[in-house]
Predict the 3D structure of the following.
Amino acid sequence: MGRQLAAMAVIIPAHDEEERLGRCLDSVRAAMDRLARARPQLQVRAIVVADSCTDRTVQVAQRQISADRRISLLQASFGNVGASRAAGARHALDDLGADADPSAIWLASTDADTCVAQDWLEGFACLHARGADAVAGTVEPDRGELDEHIFALWEQAYQPIEGHGHIHGANFGVCAAAYLDVGGFEPLAAREDVALVEALRRAGYRVQATARLQAITSGRLRGRLREGFADYLAALDHRMLHAR
């Protein structure tokens, strides 16, 4: 049967994402529903970490919470995505209780501008059962927000294959025991996901990179943080302009 999970928590940092958070949470709820049908014994919840929001992000989250008690909201003023993810993880683990076994808890991470697949959480559970301590999935930019030429450049540069080298906080999961052992997400303004994966690998944990778990993320060229996916897409746009 492999290793078994008792609980899963989805951590969603959000900074001024009133336009996209609703779609993100709709997709996460669909993934939680599918997981509940496949593995009814598993506890599952989602935590929105509204960090330094000046728009209606909090109100969007509250509307979702009123419809689904599996979702909770944490408001913070970090101004830092690494600190937001770490706070979401602490909140999830505290909510599950001191007696919860971290080796039976999975922390999934996505972003407020991202939509996950219905089998996203179920896929994490299957890979954990087969020996993965952490899983790095792939992303695809929303074609509705991106110029078709930039999308074509992205397709040429991005390699969504098994064993890929991509790390995205928008599509990542880790066993809580491994997460806690290496100190969790660092309070970094960017690349907190990369730092965590590097720490896991140094400690000897198995990080599985797979293209079987894919998420659709925003195709905007100006994101909410520096060195994020939007900057990567903007660099492709810059390359296209200079190639003309």
